[in-house]
Specification:
The chain is an alpha+beta fold and about 400 residues long. The protein folds into two domains: about 50-260, Mitogen Ypm (Jelly Rolls, Sandwich), CATH 2.60.120; about 290-300 and about 335-398, Herpes Virus-1 (2-Layer Sandwich), CATH 3.30.40. The chain has five helices and 21 strands. The strands form five sheets. The protein has a five-stranded antiparallel sheet with strand order 6-14-8-12-11. It has a four-stranded mixed sheet with strand order 1-19-21-20. It has a four-stranded antiparallel sheet with strand order 2-18-4-16, with no helix packed on it. A hairpin with a 5-residue loop joins strand 9 and strand 10 (about 150). InterPro entries: APD1-4_M, APD1-4_N, Znf_RING, Znf_RING/FYVE/PHD. It comes from Eucalyptus globulus. This is RING-type domain-containing protein. GO terms for molecular function: zinc ion binding.
Length: about 400
């Protein structure tokens, strides 16, 4: 019965599990990172879902690239009749609509109230607020522009009660603003009194809106959410309009861009291919940095049986006369010959051991220095088979 003796073949590739794990992660890290970035951009990027502020009699323009967006979805939970129009060309901001709204507000002591509007460039807003004369000067009304960066606008016209009017129990103030940029505007009312007050707020707005007569497609939210399919591959313009409901309360709609997934997959695949080619050029993915181990046994491997002795027997040979001397002489001469023509010596310089092999033929015949000289020469052929050499890889003996 034999005891199995296992060993790796000569010139075996040595790589530890940790090294293989690191190489696998190095190759997968870039695609995984890109995939994560694409997923986040689809959900929270430029074309991510958003909650849009809009007011009565508003007209808001949205630009969407049909290369990345398949369709636009608008949801109005209040179902107040938001209309959505689609254009292949940018519409003109040429129409004008006038609307007026008036409400009573109760503002707590040292508190504030307000409401949001969306106004386009060229619009005008005139505000008038009334309160008791004793409280009027403690009321502050302002118009603030912006969604992320806030800016308090200065009115182009204001009016205050004169001395004769101060004797009246109820008085008013007025302010007028001219809109120079499309943006969200917030009307803020601050009560600096120690008591809550009841005030009347009225607004007269001359609003610029977009011309929707040339729209290609349209839908309404009266029956629920509506969707607009964008025509590929041109840039599409979407206009969201609202009716006048006579209310100053906040009005929000949910806007969603349904991504064109095929485009993102194509871009991701292209980037992954480019990164793979770069890594291949740098030698990361083709094994340039692999270490080959020459584990060819220096002595022949014998089969071991259960009845075999622990120590190998020494071979004895008879000596007759001068045979011993001849053997000694022959041994010394054969030893020098083996040193010169040993299979482990370089066939070019006969000085160093063979520590490399050629690709693709696989012959291991020279030392690494001689192999480099062959690669730097003009022929670049293997000295054994005369095949063209593409690479030289070093062998390391443990």
């Amino acid at each position: 019965m034999y005891r199995p003796v296992s060993h790796l073949p000569g010139n075996a590739l040595y790589s530890s599990p940790a090294q293989r794990w690191q190489e696998a992660w190095a190759r997968l890290l870039a695609p995984l990172t890109l995939w994560l970035c694409v997923s986040v951009s689809l959900r929270y990027g430029y074309y991510g879902d958003s909650r849009m502020v809009i007011g009565p009699s508003s007209s808001r323009l949205i630009t969407a690239s049909s290369l990345f967006v398949d369709r636009v979805e608008v949801r109005d939970e209040a179902r107040k009749g938001v209309s959505v129009y689609g254009f292949s060309e940018k519409p003109q901001l040429s129409y004008e609509t006038n609307w007026t709204v008036s409400n009573y507000l109760i503002v707590g002591s040292y508190n504030r109230k307000g409401f949001n509007l969306w106004l386009n460039r060229g619009s005008k807003i005139r505000m008038r607020w009334e309160a008791q004369t004793s409280h009027l000067n403690q009321l502050q009304v302002a118009l603030i522009k912006g969604e992320l960066k806030y800016e308090t606008l200065q009115p182009s016209f204001t009016s205050s009660p004169d001395e004769a009017a101060l004797k009246e129990p109820i008085n008013f103030k007025e302010a007028e603003y001219y809109i120079e940029e499309d943006d969200k505007y917030y009307v803020k009312v601050v009560n600096a009194n120690s008591r809550s007050i009841i005030m009347s707020m009225s607004m007269n707005v001359s609003s610029k809106i977009y011309d929707t007569t040339k729209s290609k497609i349209m839908c309404s939210t009266l029956q629920g959410s509506c969707q607009l399919k964008l025509l590929f591959p041109n840039t599409q313009y979407v206009v969201v309009t609202t009716p006048s409901n006579g209310n100053l309360g906040d009005w929000h709609i949910e806007l969603s861009f349904v991504a064109r997934v095929v485009t993102y997959i194509a871009i991701l695949g292209f980037i992954v291919i480019v990164i793979f080619l770069i890594l291949k050029y740098l030698g990361v993915c083709d094994g340039e940095n692999e270490v080959y181990v020459d584990d060819t046994p220096a002595f022949p491997v014998r089969q071991v049986t259960e009845t075999a002795p622990m120590m190998p027997e020494k071979s004895s040979r008879p000596t007759y006369g001068t045979n011993e001397e001849e053997d000694d002489d022959g041994g010394s001469s054969s030893s020098s010959s083996e040193d010169l023509y040993d299979a482990k010596l370089c066939v070019i310089c006969y000085d160093d051991q063979r520590n490399c092999f050629f690709v693709p033929c696989g012959h291991c015949t020279t030392c690494y220095d001689c192999a480099q000289r062959i690669m730097e020469g003009e022929s670049k052929v293997c000295p054994i088979c005369r095949r063209l050499i593409r690479k030289v890889r070093r062998l390391f003996s443990p």
